[in-house]
């Protein structure tokens, strides 16, 4: 998230003491803490709602797959087509008819 080191936090604290003053600083820190809490709460609620939507979509997908599988299982199997008849061996071609010899 925010990459704030100790030196940056010290600088922010010094500036806050100078600008806000030591008397009002606890009140200001309390207000900032409340804002941070509200922001975290809103972020958590958003994340939870997104997770719920993802979970519901996954459940819908699983439900559809289950219905498809059950429809497939309930369908009556189609009768198997009879095996093809064995092929008869092709007959040898008839010998050419002998032509009568013509005398020339």
Shape: rod-shaped
Q: What percent strand?
A: under 5%
Largest sheet: none
Cα radius of gyration in angstroms: 44 Å
Q: What structural class is derived from the secondary structure elements?
A: mainly alpha
Tally of helical segments: 2
Describe what you observe in this structure.
The chain has helices at 6-20, 25-74. With 104 residues, it is mainly alpha-helical. The mean pLDDT is 81. It has a domain at 11-74.
Describe the secondary structure blueprint for this structure:
Elements: H1 6-20, H2 25-74
Kindly summarize this structure in a few lines:
With 104 residues, the protein is mainly α.
Features:
single chain, 104 residues, mainly alpha, 2 helices, rod-shaped
